[in-house]
Amino acid sequence: MSVTRVVVVEDAARMPDLLGSGDGVLREVERAFPAVDIMVRGNRITLTGDEDDVAAAAAAVEELRDVLGAGVPLTPDVARESVRMLRAATATATQPAGATGASSTATAERPAGVLSRSILSTRGRTIRPKTQGQASYVHAIETHTITFGIGPAGTGKTYLAMAQAVAALQSKRVNRIVLTRPAVEAGERLGFLPGSLGEKIDPYLRPLYDALHDMVDPESVPKLMEAGTIEVAPLAYMRGRTLNDAFVILDEAQNTTREQMKMFLTRLGFGTTMVVTGDVTQVDLPGGTTSGLRAASEILSGVEDIAFCHLGAQDVVRHRLVSDIITAYAKNDEQEQGRGPRPTGQRRRFDREERQ
Fold first, then answer.
1. Are strands 273-278 and 306-310 parallel, antiparallel or unpaired?
2. What is the mean pLDDT of residues 278-296?
3. Closest-CA residue to 60 (of 83, 32, 78)
4. For residue 19, is pLDDT > 50?
5. Which CATH number does the domain housing residue 56 bear?
6. How far is 356 from 350, CA to CA, in rounded Å?
7. Beta carbons within 10 angstroms of residue 83's beta carbon
8. CA-CA distance, 59 to 322, in Å (whole number)?
9. Is residue 119, in this structure, part of any structural domain at all?
10. Sorting pLDDT into bands at 50, 70 and 90, what band is 187?
């Protein structure tokens, strides 16, 4: 049965913002609900189609109106994520009580509440979580001493952790920020690097500097580093230290060994928050070496005050193709699980040497 529903936007001057640049937001809603005919006239949005589809589309439009009212600029990505979150909330609400497979920690929060949550306002812009997964990750950092952020590239693991660190420093909840990562090359062997120690490790730590410069005035970064308020160092320099009243971020943790991960976690001091980020599908360790991140997720699961947040392709906030690429690789990995391990390049070189 076809029905018609009208959504009225009281502030007609905001209609261009609601529709998006080039009507991009509206087209995203039309793409999400292809069975609904959407017509815009003045400050009225008319939706026609099947009753259930119209109700869902109207809820999406009303939610986007609330998101805009909360001060969040609307983009096609924001519209896409809002629709996805509303559908997930609907699925959760209609799931039978006690159904298996439902996460006990998952909460069906409205997109307006998630997307308008401010972490840090700096340099004329506000950093916010852009997906439900990111919002859960941010909440875990705020409520746990140690948080593991595990997920593919582009899900904001390091960036959001850095924003939380800068916010904690500005509010004087911590006295310093410590950023570290293992100095492991991504599938290439660069050989010995020239220069001082700082110049040698700089290429490995550059992603942390990039995120830091987005949130702190670049001119003040050298002064903060000289004063020890911000420290960027390779993981090897963490041994023997106790880190008190600090916000510590370990990036690219999938490239730590089991022993390195244990060493890092035991640096925890009083008043310190730790965030460990990594992607277990992009391990650059030599063949046969167990990733410290994977081992920690098995050993520490269930330990009080340690949170594990798993982000997925739906949390990618880079180009939308990145999400499709991650999904395609994940499907390919599932297909190849039963074929046994693939030989590494190093193993093939050994084979050739043995034959000679």
1. unpaired
2. 88
3. 83
4. yes
5. 3.30.1370.10
6. 10
7. 22
8. 28
9. no
10. very low
